[in-house]
Amino acid sequence: MLLKPALSIAREVVARMRPYCERVMIAGSIRREKEKVKDAEIVFWPRMEVASAGDQAASMLFDVSKVESTTLVPTTERMVAELTASGLWRLDARVKRNGPRHKRLLCRGLTVELYRAGGRNWGWIQVLRTGPAEFSHALVTPQWSGGFLPVDKRVKDGVVLVRGQEVSVPTEQAFFDLWGIDFIEPPLRSVGALRMVTVWRPSIWNGGR
Fold first, then answer.
1. What is the span of the domain harbouring residue 80?
2. How far apart are CA 189 and CA 179, in angstroms?
């Protein structure tokens, strides 16, 4: 699909999702302003709500270990169900992705991929899902394999670890700062751009040594 109609659909999806989310944004090739796009990637941080008695089984589906009250569940399932009922989208029956962190839907001829984030990993998920894939892969590939992963950092289960400890990455700028790399605007992101703008900082790239 061409960028203009895809962007229009993605903006409508984001607007309809907003009441259910703390934050929601367009990522992927649309954000990179590619002339043609295959899908709309949306990063969202769902609001939490008190689960009804009938939601107890559903609450077990989600990782709520870091939420103070286990009676709280993300609005994700209710959002998907209500917006499906409204006719905005439907789950993709051919390529099934309907987990708690990733859902694949169809909206007016465009595939919509939803990726869940939170306050502590928002910046990293933004970077990851904006892509392109080879750019994101290079960021988590060790330096000895030609990548840009600082020696004291790694990414596991969607969170960034520094010397084995989880750290908050609330913005894209925070992620680029952690990696010791100058910020790259989404339309310019590529492995070549990484090589051009990398700022070599020994305190970051050599684990503080």
1. 3-116
2. 15
